[in-house]
Amino acid sequence: MNQYIQPSASTASSRIYDILRKDLVGGRFAAGEKLAINALKEQYQVGLSPLREALNKLAAYGLLIQENQRGFRVPTLSRDELDDIAKMRLALEVMAFEQAIVRGDSAWEADLLAAEHRLKCADMTLDKDDEWERLHTQFHRTLVAPCGSVWLLRFIEQLHDQFDRYRRLGPKMPVIRQELDQQHHELVELALKRDAETARKLLDDHIRKSYDVALQCFLEHG
Question: Is 26 left (phi over 0), alpha (psi -120 to 50) or beta?
Answer without folding.
Answer: alpha
